[in-house]
Write a structure and sequence with these properties.
By secondary structure, the protein is mainly alpha-helical. The protein is built from 29 helices and no strands. It starts with a helix and ends with a helix.
Length: 679
């Protein structure tokens, strides 16, 4: 601020001096400015009045123009009415009626002239709506309309009866001119189609013959080529139609024939849509859908097919088929049959089945039934696919429940008597259809399972997994009928189910191996009786293996010979190897304990002899012969050697059996000791 004042100091000092006389100058300017303002306001007022006057005159002229147009339209309406009436009067003034004197073709041409004039009349009448004069003329217009429609109806019927294509063409063109195409289609439906449908669609005739429904549909399809040929040629719906002579805007198949077919089926054949008998319902639905596809092919063009599928009667026909109820009935049948097989008592599969157990056989048959031609419907593909996954999940849960059962000592043949206990009510399963296979049952009575049945379950699981690709190949063509292409998702879902089934095999194998091992060792532990057999019994030197070795290996031979046609050889060999490894390890420990006990007993006797300083023969054996302890060692060595030979006969390598090399070395050392002490 200081710098600014110093810079313009002279201007600040002279500021008051420069403003002297400024008020007088302003007063002198105010007078001419006021006069100029008054002149501008006056000019503005004059211009506004001129504009207002022009607007009023333009508005009056616009009103006059509108009234003139109304008068002209009314004049045109009167002229059209008078012209039509003049044509009618000139025809009716003849000695005989015009429709009898003139040929039908000439009458059609006259009606076409009237329709053209009537179309103009309708246009001007709509534009003049609300005028008093039009209300006075309206009765005359209504009379002309009624007369024109009656004449057109009569002419169209006459053309259809005489099969005169020119009359039909003129008549339909006239209908199109007055924008009454739907009236023509409704007339054809009532007069031509309805009587034929009432004669063909008769419930008693359809139900009296096995092929009654197919015969009826065949007659319905014959109606189009026999009775609608001329109409299709005129409207361009036939292949032989000439484009230059066709009358567009009509679709008699969609708007005349199809609604009457649906009406006739709904009124005269209500039992057609009854889903109470699923087999009959499936047959009727399949035949009806084939009829519908054949009827669509008669439409002649894609546009006509689209109009047909968008027609309310088309949707009404499809909605009449109660597919959800049909599926519920089928669901009860399949779920009830499956649950009846998934019981506590495992039954054998019927003769000729590729499965061992009835539960597995029923599971596979249920999967096949879902996609069989006798049950599958394209509209239910999504529900049937869900049911397929539910069946697989339910079987997987059932197998997991079997793992919780204790292994019985009874033979499989005794267990698998067809005594059904604890079977589930199908209606209960139906009520929980959405959650089927989601989890195991909450409570079940305790039940046992035999080792043979466990083997059967593994064999069935393996067989079911092998057949799932076959099921997929069955499903694919069915899904293609509904336009489904995303088969990768279907394959992935089926692979998940297959993975769930395969996950059940390792626990089952473990149970089988454990049972085999326990059964085998229950005999191998008889080696504990060997010392008792030779101590102070004066038995001969052993030359053969004990009988318990054969008994111990008997379950292995039974598994290998009895199930080789049901299981893969590699799986059986793996079970044998694992079971022998477990039992051999326990057997090795038992033999080691026996040899250790024998050695302790032998050392104890030696110390006793030294204490007594006696030269009496060995109290445990005959003089000069093999001692009891050496006999025990030799017997154990023979048993182990024989066990190794039997392992070789089973197709296994003894070196692959865990603990068997150690067992062999253990008894070999004992045998060497026994033979070394001989003189």
């Amino acid at each position: 601020m200081v710098e600014l004042i110093n810079k313009d100091y002279a201007d600040f000092v002279n500021l008051s001096t420069n403003l002297v006389g400024m008020d007088k100058a302003l007063n002198q300017l105010s007078v001419p400015l006021g006069q100029l303002r008054e002149e501008v306001l006056s000019l503005r007022s004059s211009v506004s009045e001129g504009i207002r006057a022009v607007d009023e005159r333009m508005s009056k002229q616009e009103d006059i123009r509108k009234k003139k147009m109304c008068v002209l339209r009314l004049i045109q309406v009167i002229r059209s009415v008078e012209k039509i009436e003049k044509i009618l009067n000139s025809e009716s003034s003849k000695e005989t009626p015009a429709l009898e004197v003139r040929s039908p073709l000439l009458t059609g041409q006259i009606l076409e002239r009237i329709a053209t004039e009537f179309n103009q009349l309708q246009f001007h009448a709509v534009q003049s709506k609300g005028l008093p004069l039009l209300d006075k003329v309206r009765p005359r217009i209504a009379g002309i309309t009624a007369m024109l429609q009656r004449s057109l109806e009569g002419l169209l019927l006459e053309g259809l009866q005489t099969s005169d294509i020119d009359i039909i063409r003129h008549c339909l063109r006239t209908y199109a001119t007055i924008d009454k195409t739907r009236d023509a289609e409704a007339l054809v439906g009532q007069v031509l189609v309805k009587p034929y449908m009432d004669q063909v669609i008769i419930e008693q005739i359809v139900e009296s013959r096995p092929d009654g429904l197919q015969t009826m549909y065949k007659k319905l399809l014959e109606f189009v080529p026999h009775h609608c040929r001329l109409l299709r040629e005129v409207t361009g719906g036939a292949i032989s139609s000439e484009k230059g002579n066709t009358v567009p805007g009509y679709d008699f198949l969609v708007n005349s024939v199809w609604p009457e077919i649906v009406r006739g089926l709904e009124e005269n054949l209500p039992s057609l849509f009854n889903p109470g008998d699923p087999d009959a319902f499936h047959k009727k639905y399949t035949i009806s859908m084939n009829f519908l596809r054949t009827f669509e092919r008669q439409c002649g063009s894609q546009a006509s097919v689209k109009r047909l599928r968008a027609h309310p009667a088309y949707h009404s026909f499809n909605n009449k088929w109660n597919l959800p109820v049909y599926f519920q009935i089928r669901f009860r049948e399949i779920a009830g049959s499956l649950e009846a097989a998934l019981t506590d008592v495992l039954e054998d599969a019927p003769a000729g089945s590729s499965f061992c157990l009835l539960a597995s056989h029923r599971t596979w048959s249920s999967l096949q039934r879902c996609w069989s031609d006798a049950m599958f419907l394209p509209s239910l593909a999504h529900r049937l696919w869900r049911l397929t996954l539910q069946i697989l999940a339910r079987y997987s849960v059932f197998v997991n429940e079997l793992l919780l059962r204790p292994i019985s000592n009874e033979s499989a043949k005794d267990i698998k008597n067809p005594v059904v206990t604890g079977s589930k009510d199908p209606s209960v399963t139906q009520g929980n259809s959405e959650d089927q296979g989601s989890g195991p049952s909450e409570s079940k009575p305790a039940a046992s399972i035999s080792s043979t049945q466990l083997v059967y379950v593994v064999a069935d699981l393996d067989r079911l997994q092998e057949q799932l690709p076959e099921l997929l190949e069955t499903i694919k063509p069915k899904l293609e009928t509904i336009g489904f292409k995303n088969f990768s998702s279907i394959s992935a879902a089926l692979a998940d189910s297959q993975l769930s089934l395969s996950a059940c095999v390792p626990p089952l194998s473990s149970r089988i191996v454990r049972d085999l091992s326990e059964s085998c060792f229950s005999y191998l532990k008889s080696a504990l009786e060997v010392p008792r057999l030779y101590r102070r019994t004066n038995k001969e030197v052993p030359t053969t293996a004990s009988s318990y070795v054969d008994s111990a290996l008997k379950p292995f031979y039974q598994l290998q010979s009895g199930h080789k046609d049901k299981l893969k050889q590699a799986l059986i060999q793996q079970w044998l190897e694992d079971a022998l490894s477990e039992s051999t390890q326990k057997y090795c420990e038992t033999v080691s304990d026996i040899l250790h006990s024998v050695r302790k007993m032998e050392e104890s006797l030696k110390r006793l002899k030294q204490a007594r300083k006696t030269t009496s023969p060995n109290p445990g054996g005959s003089g000069g012969g093999m001692s009891d302890d050496d006999k025990i060692r030799l017997q154990l060595a023979l048993d182990v050697e024989y066990l190794g030979e039997q392992i070789q006969k089973l197709g296994l390598q003894s070196k692959d059996i865990k603990s068997f090399p150690a067992l062999t070395a253990l008894v070999a050392a004992a045998k060497d000791q026994a033979t070394a002490e001989q003189p």
